[in-house]
Amino acid sequence: MVDRVSDIEPELLKRWGIQGIVLDLDNTIVPWHTADLSDGVAAWVARLRADGILFCLLTNNYGRQAAEVADILSMNIIKGALKPSPPAFRKALAALGTPASASVVIGDQLFTDVLGGKLTGMRAVLVRPIGRKEFPTTALLRMLEEPIVAWLRRNEGAKA
Hints:
35% of the residues are buried. 42% of the residues lie in helices and 13% in strands. The protein has a single domain, classed as 3-Layer(aba) Sandwich (Rossmann fold), CATH 3.40.50.1000. The protein has a 5-stranded parallel beta sheet, with helices on both faces. By secondary structure, it is an alpha/beta fold.
């Protein structure tokens, strides 16, 4: 787990052989229901693009701010994805033109972003949510996630 998307080091992605990133929107790179990019996101995207990494936004959001963010970052976007539905993730992979084995999903929710990516055979990086304002159902899921995320944080140091 990382605090911000921009904390994910390009060297790690290179080591993993990553060619494509499926990126969540709300509370991952922007606060919920806004188009205000989190600090460092645009520069991080530009740096990875310079290394040849491809991007696709994948969101359950239908709002126009989702399209605004896609325009700002010049990324393909799949809205109303119904994550963690694997077909949505396969659609993102098709948009990227990369196999699941060379792709990573980055998002702030275990039961949508991480689960959907894993069900599709992708690596996943969990990001701490940007803000506390979110869809009511998401707030309920966070209560279920909390003990799992706490366990993951405690055991991160055990990984080699």
